[in-house]
Amino acid sequence: MIHIENISKLFTKDFIENPLIETFDAGKINVSSGRLVVCDPLITSDMPVFSTLFPIGEFQILVHKERESNCIAYVELVFSNSKITKWELAVSDGQTVKDLEGEEIYGYPVESGMGCFMDYETQQGLNHLEKKLFDRKGEDFMGIYEEFFHEHFYQQDGAINQFAILKPDEEKEGTIFAFETGYGEGFYASYIGFDQNEKPVKLVSELIEII
User: Which of left, alpha, beta for 175 (phi over 0: left; psi -120 to 50: alpha)?
Assistant: First the structure.
């Protein structure tokens, strides 16, 4: 897969060596169960978790923008500084890479222009928050984006944030890393870098392929 080869060239090292990309430290996300979901949180709140079990704790998120457009090209979640020995397409149970043909990928659809990384337990917290808000507001409920996500992306002075860390349940540690997806709507894949002991080192979501 050409995509895997490009991901390997860009992300196997601790830093990206590509003049077309600008990197930003976006903070840390809390992973509470090790079962991760990457999805559009507005349309795929029931997106299945990846079959890989990830480390538990707080881990750094890096955002990589395409310099020319200032759009987010890649989102990278770093679990350790171990040496990466191989990359694989991130899949959920029932998905088999050998069933793919050509440049076909498994991934997640985006219709809202926003994607996110979150733990399964946080996903359940987000679903619970949406139901709670709907039950409380009834006909006045405007949708989970307007009720929860909007304030984190639009500042009072009119400026727009391209990414944010959100907490759907104040009583739990889980957080969501939400971000603008590339040029907007699309179907996006994620990739996992493993060390020699088959432990995940990085999780990368590709939104714009930069070669």
Answer: beta
Alpha-carbon distance of 103 to 121, in angstroms, equals: 32
Residues 81-110 have pLDDT tens digits of: 999 999 999 999 999 998 898 888 999 999
pLDDT tens per residue, range 38-69: 999 988 668 899 999 999 999 999 999 999 99
Nearest Cα to Cα of residue 115 among 22, 188, 193: 188
Lowest mean pLDDT among 34-38, 144-148, 188-192, 204-208: 144-148
Q: Cα–Cα distance between 166 and 131 in angstroms, integer?
A: 17
| Beta carbons within 8 Å of 145's beta carbon, 6+ residues apart | 42, 112, 114
What are the beta bridge partners of residue 114?
180
**Helix H or strand E encompassing 59:** strand 57-66
Contact status, residue 53 vs residue 143, Cβ threshold 8 Å: no
**What is the rounded average pLDDT for all residues in the chain?**
91
CB 17 within 8 A of CB 210: no
Tokens for 114, please give them: 């926003």
Q: Give the pTM.
A: 0.93
Q: Quote the CA–CA distance of 178 and 94 in Å, as a whole number.
A: 26
Q: Whole-angstrom Cα distance, residue 36 to residue 24? A: 22
Tell me which residue of 144, 114, 92 sits closest to 39, measured CA to CA. Answer: 114
- Ramachandran angles phi, psi of 60, nearest 5°: -70, 140
